[in-house]
Amino acid sequence: MKLVEATDDYANQNANREDLVNGIYGTLQQYSEKDKLSLIGGKQLGAKSLYVNFNQHTDPSTISFSVTVNGAEVKANANPDALNGYILRFPDHLTAGTYSVKVSSSQSEVSNSSVQVKVQEEYPVGIQMTGSDTLPSSEQAIIPFEVKNQFGEAMDYPSSELKLYSSEKSALINDDLQAIVMDTTSYKYDFDLIHVYLYLDASPGISVTKMFKVGQASIASEVRNVTIRNAKGNAVSSLTQGQSYYMNFDVFDQYGTPISLKSLAAAKVTATVSDTDLLTAGPIQAAASSDEADFTIPLIVRYPEKDTDVTVALTMEGQNRSTYTIRIAGVPKSVTSPNPPVVTPEVPRLSEVTHQTTAGGQIFATSSQKGFVYLLPGGPEANSTIESIMNRSSEEGGLAVAAEAGVPLSLSTENLQHGEYVLYAVNPDTGLISEPALVTLTPAPADTSAPVITGVQDTEFLSTETKELKATSSEDGFLYLVQANVGVLGSPTLEMLDLYATGSGLKVEVSAGEEATITVEAGSFIPGYYTFFAVDESGNISTAAGTIIVR
């Protein structure tokens, strides 16, 4: 029925057939539009994600999205939620602008198929130190921190844009760990306090300050965030044939502080498997930067006929033990034809290999398949297998990094001695290994270049007052403030500088290019003339810099 306004034209007339037909069609059309699938909104969810929602539930297998900004298409992965919406995750940070999200369905017509989303670039709004108020007694005690953006997410914030003050002079920011690292071995157990103040250089109002006490030496105590992932990086609940897998996890000490790979090796963390006929655990190594974990273990699987549970136990310090059960999906024996097709899996290949570099440098290589690349000391061994390569890596101190097919990777040789090494690419899924590639690490050239001191101002002050002096060394090492006597100014030795620094003098550790503050406490220096020297990590000594007069 069509309802019309009671005008003079219609007030005294009956509805005709055309009016009735058009009225019914219009009403059905209104209800039909309401029943159609439609995008009803969108917003920015994070620095690398958007959110769009529909007016009704959708089958993810029938939905596809396309996203454009400034006319250019950008790739995104769509993940449905329980509220008729989808989270669109992007591999890179979103740039400011208006993003157009379009949807199509293979199952139904879409009434409103696009939505515009205004996007902001991320910016910092806060900073916090995570972890315990107690630090372990360690040469590398770690204080993790997070710079938060406007979405409450942790940002990758460069240390060059952060400012750190600490009462512990060895404190510095480690970009790789996203943490403050310091030496706490000189502090009394549960007594001395360390003050740490961290702020953004461009926005000093965004800051955090915290007091820490020092406890006992770090002990690996707890494993957290354990996940089993496939070659695509997706978490899985069971292992099925046709894919490669690895186990990711984090390790924390008794104070809830994350443990580094170096500390993990010292803690003798080991992985054992309940059924080695079905599952082999490779060496513990640093996880790929794309994984949300610190450590990873490659898993080599041999599939049984029936579903079977296998236990992996991580033992820390020889006593703390965490166990995890992994289900391996069975592969029933199938009846094959008399002449089944033979499919030979491809052997991984190494290319673009750095065959020679100095010890401490980077080795670059590319694997043709996803898996791992191992660097082992010594030459290749006959009849090497994936198990023998893993064993050599664990026993002889090799390196292993996760590899993506066709993507160049690098291995740091910072802690390796010069000598002959061999490189293998390994595919844990097929159990195949590449031909060995020989690598030579040559001795690093001796450092004979002396550091240079800058930023020193000649000054004069009374021995009864406390004075702060500034100086910068061009290299990592130490700054010495010592008496400027004939012996020191003539031909100083490292032993001589250490001797004078323990008397009326000072010695502080410094980082290359970073201005250091040297505090001369009242009454600690006898009157006289003083000067600065810098010593680098190779023992090279700078020329004297500055004239400091103490009255």
Helical percentage: under 10%
Give the amount of beta strand, in percent.
35-45%
Structural class: mainly beta
Strand count = 43
Largest sheet descriptor: 6 strands, mixed
Q: Count of DSSP helices?
A: 5
- Mean of pLDDT: 85
Please mark out the parts with pLDDT under 50 across 5 or more consecutive residues, or reply none.
Answer: 1-12, 27-31
Radius of gyration: 33 Å
Structural shape: globular
Distance between the termini: 106 Å
Describe it.
The chain is mainly beta and 551 residues long. The chain contains 5 helices and 43 strands. The strands form 10 sheets. Strands 28, 30, 31, 33, 34 and 35 form a 6-stranded mixed β-sheet that branches. Strands 9, 11, 12, 14 and 15 form a 5-stranded antiparallel β-sheet that branches. Strands 18, 20, 22, 23 and 24 form a 5-stranded antiparallel β-sheet that branches. The longest helix has 19 residues, at 17-35. The protein is globular and about 90 Å long. The termini are far apart. 27% of the residues are buried. This is Cadherin-like beta sandwich domain-containing protein.
